[in-house]
Amino acid sequence: METKNQKKVQKSRGISAALVIFGCAIIAVCFFWFVCGNPAGFDEKGAPLPGNFFATMFKGGFVVPIILTLLCTVIALSIERAFAFAKMKGKKNQTKFVQDVKVKLAEGDIRGAREMCDKQQGTVANILNAGLIRYEDVEKIEGLNNDAKAAIIQKEIEEATALEMPSMQQNLPVIAVISTLGTLFGLFGTVLGMIRAFSALGQEGAPDPLALSTAISEALINTATGIATGAMAIIFYNYFAAKVEDITNAVDEIGFAIGQTYTTKHLNK
Fold first, then answer.
1. CA 170 to CA 165: how far, in whole Å?
2. Dist. CA 199–CA 212, nearest whole Å
């Protein structure tokens, strides 16, 4: 039978990555055409005015809005994950909460530990509360030895953790993929720009300075934005992956404390 905490987890859903990507694509395209492509940023020959970064970015070609979409997606999903992990952490400091609960468990105060979970909320509190509910249930079961009952409690904690895990890892795989795609699209744009640059140099007579500068701009802009997008995605992914690991470590610590409490309390039974 599912606990209330498990049902609560199943109903919890974050922002869809597909919707975020679609929205970011619209923003990126509009930014590319209406801001970067603003005619005021170019001279009569179509070259970007000196110092106008957005106009220079426009010369990066069609790859730029793709990379901007990836960049906006990383930022949007990272903000979403930041709010999500702030909620998962609970109302108080997670480390202090774990230590306080361990004190309650050492004292054998299961009811007090559950009350702390209700006040704390968050992922660790939900998982712990599910284990404590099962703790109280198995004490009423007859015909099982202490090891079997402790295994039931541990299994409940593992199931609650498995139900929480998708919420913790949501959208992180997308950020991980973008860390690679951003760099690859940057290199792709660089190759296209260099092809145009060599084409301009290969024309008969003096090379067209405008075509040559446009091609070089495309190569450099795509390289810069692609590397920046990939680097940002890697940083945010590793940061949130560490957050997930902190939560799982806290759950493991609490799970061990619950098992130890049950074994100590029923040692002579």
1. 8
2. 8
Strands (E), the chain: none
Say if CB 94 and CB 253 are below 8 A apart.
no
Indicate the pTM of the whole model: 0.83
Please state, in angstroms and rounded to a whole number, the distance separating the CA atoms of residues 263 and 269: 10
Percent helix, strand, coil in the chain, to 5, is: 80, 0, 20
Beta carbons of 129 and 118 less than 8 angstroms apart:
yes
**Tokens in use for 266?**
């029923």
Can you tell me the distance from the alpha carbon of 250 to that of 72, in angstroms, rounded to the nearest whole number?
32
Backbone φ and ψ for 48, nearest 5 degrees, come out as -60, 140
Q: What are the structural domain ranges in the chain?
A: 4-265
pLDDT digits (tens, 9 = 90+) for 194-216: 887 777 676 655 566 666 676 67
Question: Are the beta carbons of 104 and 208 closer than 8 angstroms?
Answer: no
